[in-house]
From TrEMBL:
Alphabetical list of SUPFAM superfamilies matching this protein: MOP-like, P-loop containing nucleoside triphosphate hydrolases
Name of the protein: Glycerol transport system ATP-binding protein
Compartments where located: Cell inner membrane
Keyword field contains ATP-binding: yes
Taxonomic placement: Bacteria, Pseudomonadati, Pseudomonadota, Alphaproteobacteria, Hyphomicrobiales
Organism, as annotated: Allorhizobium borbori
Pfam families: ABC_tran (PF00005), OB_MalK (PF17912)
Length: 356
C-alpha cells in the first residue's frame, strides 16, 4: 500500500497545448494518504479517467510527477507500478473456475501454492463467492463475473493501490447497493489505498473516506461527505452533491447583509471580497425554513418524495428549492427564513470565508 503524491500534474492530449483550456487535467497537486479510500467524482468529461490513467501509468502526464511512497513512478509502465485495477466491465477467464480466476494474479507472480490457497480462500469468503469457487466463470451472470473481477483486484496483499473505474456500471441496482457496502467493508478490513472513479454521488459518498470532486479538468474539493455537504468549496460541489442540490443566487453584499433582488438576507459575518468578483449566495434546501413572517416567497410546486417534501418556490425572482420534513405542514402565506450560519458566500464560484 502506498501514499500517492500528485506533484504539480497537468495533462493535455494535444502536445501543443498552451492555454489553460487546452488541458484535460488542469494542475493537480495533492497527497493521498496510504490506506485511504478516495472516490473521484464528477460529470462526464471532467477528467476523472485521465487522472486515474495517470495514476495507473496508462498515460504519462504532460507535466509534473507521480510518486508512490515518495518514489517517482512517472516513467514506470503500468505493470511495473504494482497496482491492481478493476474496470467497468468484467475481465474474467471464462474457462477457468472462480477459484483459479482469483489465484491467477498470485500464481503469475510465483507465489507459493499454499499462500495462494490461503489468500484465495480468504477473499472468496470476504466477497461471498466461496459457494461458487469450483464453478467455471462461463455461464455466470454479469453481476457474478464483476464480483470475480472485484475479488481478483483484492487478492494480492502487496499492491501499492487498487484502482476502480466505474466498477458497478453493469451491476443491477439492488446488487449495486450490496457491493458498495461490501467494498467499504473490504476497504476497512484490508487497509488498501483505493481510488474509485464514478459519476454517481451515492456510490462516491458510500464508498469513500475522502471524495475528490472534479469539474472541468480541475479538482474543486477534496473532503469527507459531511464537508462536501456542509461547506462546499465551489458552487459546482453544492449543486452536484445533494438532492436537490444547493440553491445558488446572485447577490450584492454590504457588510454582513446580502441583497438578493431587493431582499435583504442577513449573513453570519462580513465576507472578505475582492472587487469586481461575481457574488453568489449558496444555501442548501435543508437549511431554509418556511414560516409566517419570513421573507416573501411564492410557492410553485410541492413534490412529495416520501420522508420529505421538496417545495419549489420563487424568491426575489430566483428559483428556490426548500426541503420540508414529511410531517410538517406548509403554512398559508408562508415566507422563508434562511439560517445565516448555513449560507455560503461565493465569489466567482469559489467559497469566501467570513471575517471573524
Ligand atoms: N485520448 C483522448 N484524446 C483527446 N482527448 C481526450 C482523450 N481522452 C479524453 N479526452 C478529453 O479529455 C477530457 C477529459 O476526459 P476524461 O475521459 O478524463 O473524463 P471523464 O471524467 O473520465 O469522463 P467519463 O465519465 O465520460 O469517462 C474530455 O474533454 C475528453 O473529451
Amino acid at each position: 500500500m502506498a501514499r500517492i503524491t500528485l506533484d504539480h500534474i497537468r495533462h493535455a492530449y494535444n502536445a501543443r497545448a498552451q492555454a489553460a483550456g487546452d488541458y484535460a487535467l488542469k494542475e493537480v497537486h495533492h497527497e493521498w494518504e496510504d490506506g485511504g479510500a478516495y472516490a473521484l467524482l464528477g460529470p462526464s468529461g471532467c477528467g476523472k479517467t485521465t487522472l486515474l490513467n495517470i495514476i495507473s501509468g496508462l498515460i504519462r502526464p504532460s507535466e509534473g510527477r507521480i510518486l508512490f511512497d515518495g518514489s517517482d513512478v512517472t516513467d514506470l509502465a503500468t505493470e511495473d507500478r504494482n497496482i491492481a485495477q478493476v474496470f467497468q466491465f468484467p475481465v474474467v477467464y471464462d474457462t477457468m473456475t472462480v477459484y483459479d480466476n482469483l489465484a491467477f494474479p498470485l500464481r503469475n507472480r510465483q507465489v507459493p501454492e499454499a499462500t495462494v490457497d490461503q489468500r484465495v480462500r480468504e477473499i472468496l469468503e470476504m466477497t461471498d463467492l466461496a459457494g461458487m469457487a469450483k464453478r467455471r466463470a462461463r455461464g455466470l451472470t454479469a453481476d457474478q463475473k464483476q464480483k470475480i473481477s472485484l475479488a481478483r483486484g483484492l487478492v494480492r496483499g502487496d499492491v501499492n493501490a487498487i484502482l476502480f473505474d466505474e466498477p458497478l456500471t453493469v451491476i443491477d441496482p439492488h446488487m449495486k447497493w450490496v457491493l458498495r457496502s461490501q467494498l467499504k467493508r473490504l476497504h476497512r478490513q484490508s487497509g488498501f489505498t483505493m481510488v474509485y472513479v464514478t459519476h454517481d454521488q451515492t456510490e462516491a459518498l458510500t464508498f469513500a473516506d475522502k471524495v475528490v470532486v472534479m469539474y472541468d479538468g480541475q479538482i474543486v474539493q477534496i473532503g469527507t461527505p459531511a464537508e462536501l455537504f456542509e461547506r462546499p468549496s465551489h458552487t459546482f460541489v453544492g449543486y452536484f452533491i445533494g438532492s436537490p442540490g444547493m440553491n445558488v443566487m446572485p447577490a450584492e453584499i454590504t457588510g454582513a447583509t446580502a441583497m438578493v433582488g431587493g431582499m435583504a438576507v442577513p449573513l453570519s459575518g462580513a465576507p472578505h471580497l475582492a472587487a469586481q468578483s461575481r457574488i453568489e449566495l449558496g444555501i442548501r434546501p435543508e437549511f431554509i425554513k418556511l414560516e409566517r413572517g419570513g421573507l416573501p416567497v411564492s410557492i410553485e410546486k410541492v413534490e412529495d418524495i416520501g420522508r420529505q417534501k421538496i417545495v419549489r418556490a420563487r424568491f426575489a425572482g430566483q428559483k428556490l428549492a426548500i426541503v420540508v420534513p414529511e410531517d410538517e405542514a406548509i403554512p398559508a402565506e408562508a415566507g422563508v427564513r434562511f439560517d445565516p450560519s448555513a449560507i455560503g458566500v461565493y465569489a466567482d464560484s469559489w467559497r469566501v470565508e467570513m471575517e471573524a
